[in-house]
């Protein structure tokens, strides 16, 4: 049965009119649902379910592409995860829609700061501050950037401005303290070590004195080691250099010499470290120890992860020998507190020990790599702005040459660092 043309036309017009009448409430309901979804995404993010928060946020952006607060939430979750490149990409999307969005500029300054791009971070802070010259978080960030650039005078001027606005601001006091620390170019370290065994050996004792100097190209450390082992005194001189190649990339170089048989005659090593997205870091290098009875080369590297106030690092040691390849592994697990100078940690290892104190030169003919297990605790604290203390206690269980029996020992190291 066909519907008359006039009736069909009237029905269509009636439907269009009904939709026009209903459109405003439907649109309002959609906005309400989007806002509610955004609150759910925020709750997920703050509860630590950041991937779920990002998924929900992207679903919201499919409906409301210009919802800037939603994209800013995605940026923050990436920053909390240490994924700075993804955070930067999302911020660039916001700038494509709103080039001077103040909150996005402030977050971009933080991204560039964490990436080590301090000049660009300063530019972003200046843009974010154009319409709010007294914003305290932006002023604090500006002072931190000046500190990293080594412009301590301007950093103090900015902090003076913060304290005029808010005299008891704790962040300003914290940044002032770190500026004092950053301006200290030298460090002097004195440490004592004691090893005690459950059989056979008398206790071992060691002391080292180290002088460090920050330079524009990296930190240089000179060190003199003294030890008494196997009833013999010995000395070793070492130098370490940590060159900085670019933000996120630095190296390690080491050279040492001793004329005592209880130390390697020569030792040298090199390693390259590279920061990765999501707060990971990777490195690769080697150590070479040359004894009077021969040499040994140990290949090593590390995989490290920073998560909030936690740090985990795993390091293998691979030692090729005529009789095969020997492996050992070490790990460090730390909990940082107020700053990098204050932490507690757990460390351990197993395999064939790479520690030259436990590389026993056998009869002038060979070097015995002995299987070792270890577990220990470590701590570092700052007593005042220029005085630090550290200590490590480690339990060892190590094979003995020839008999292959295990020998237990405890190692204690403690020291002080004076910065000036």
Q: Which CATH top level class of the largest domain fits?
A: Mainly Beta
Oligomer: single chain
Give the name of the CATH superfamily of the largest domain. Answer: monomeric porin ompg
Q: State the secondary-structure class.
A: alpha+beta
| Tally of domains | 2
What distance separates the N and C termini? 99 Å
CATH topology-level fold name of the largest domain: Porin
Measured as a percent range, the helix fraction is: 25-40%
Number of helices: 9
The description of the largest β-sheet is: 14 strands, antiparallel, barrel
Using the 3D structure, state the CATH architecture of the largest domain: Beta Barrel
Our Rg estimate from Cα atoms comes to: 30 Å
Low-pLDDT parts are 1-31, 361-366
Secondary structure tally: strands: 16
- SSE order, as H and E? HHHHHHHHHEEEEEEEEEEEEEEEE
- Which whole number gives the mean pLDDT? 87
Describe the fold and architecture.
By secondary structure, the protein is of the alpha+beta class. The protein has two domains: 124-183, no CATH class; 186-419, Porin (Beta Barrel), CATH 2.40.160.40. Helices cover 35% and strands 43% of the residues. The strands form two sheets. A 14-stranded antiparallel β-barrel has the order 1-2-3-4-5-6-7-8-9-10-11-14-15-16. A hairpin with a 2-residue loop joins strand 3 (218-229) and strand 4. It is elongated, with a radius of gyration of 30 Å. Residues 1-31 and 361-366 have low confidence and may be disordered.
């Amino acid at each position: 049965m066909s519907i008359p043309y006039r009736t069909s036309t009237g029905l269509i017009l009636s439907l269009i009119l009904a939709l026009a009448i209903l459109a405003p409430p439907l649109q309002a309901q959609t906005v309400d649902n989007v806002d509610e979804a955004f609150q759910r995404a925020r709750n997920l993010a703050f509860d630590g379910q950041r991937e779920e928060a990002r998924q929900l946020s992207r679903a919201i952006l499919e409906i409301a592409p210009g919802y800037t607060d939603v994209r800013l939430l995605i940026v923050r979750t990436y920053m909390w995860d240490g994924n700075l490149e993804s955070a930067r990409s999302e911020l660039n999307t916001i700038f494509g829609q709103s080039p001077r969005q103040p909150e996005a500029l402030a977050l971009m300054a933080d991204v560039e700061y964490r990436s080590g791009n301090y000049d660009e971070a300063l530019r972003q802070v200046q843009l974010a501050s154009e319409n709010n010259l007294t914003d305290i978080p932006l002023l604090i960030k500006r002072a931190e950037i000046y500190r990293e650039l080594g412009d301590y005078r301007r950093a103090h001027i900015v902090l003076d401005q913060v304290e005029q606005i808010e005299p008891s601001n704790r962040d300003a006091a914290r940044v002032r303290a770190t500026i004092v620390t950053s301006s200290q170019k030298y460090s002097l370290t004195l440490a004592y070590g004691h090893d005690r065994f459950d059989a056979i050996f008398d206790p071992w004792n060691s002391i080292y004195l180290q002088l460090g100097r920050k330079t524009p190209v990296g930190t240089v450390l000179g060190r003199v080691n003294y030890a008494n082992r196997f009833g013999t005194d010995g000395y070793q001189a070492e130098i370490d250099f940590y060159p900085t190649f670019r933000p996120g990339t630095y190296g390690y170089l080491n050279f040492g010499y001793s004329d005592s048989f209880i130390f390697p005659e020569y030792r040298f090593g090199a390693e390259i470290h590279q920061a990765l997205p999501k707060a990971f870091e990777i490195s690769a290098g080697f150590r070479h120890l040359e004894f009077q009875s021969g040499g040994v080369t140990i290949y090593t590297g590390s995989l490290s992860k920073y998560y909030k106030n936690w740090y985990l690092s795993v390091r293998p040691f691979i030692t090729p020998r005529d009789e095969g390849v020997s492996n050992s592994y070490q790990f460090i697990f730390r909990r940082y507190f107020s700053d990098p100078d204050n932490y507690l940690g757990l460390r351990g290892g197993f395999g064939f020990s790479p520690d030259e104190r436990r590389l026993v030169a056998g009869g002038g003919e060979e070097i015995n790599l002995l299987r070792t297990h270890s577990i220990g605790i470590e701590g570092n604290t700052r007593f005042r702005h220029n005085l630090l203390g550290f200590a490590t206690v480690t339990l060892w269980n190590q094979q003995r040459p020839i008999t292959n029996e295990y020998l237990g020992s405890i190692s204690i190291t403690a020291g002080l660092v004076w910065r000036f």
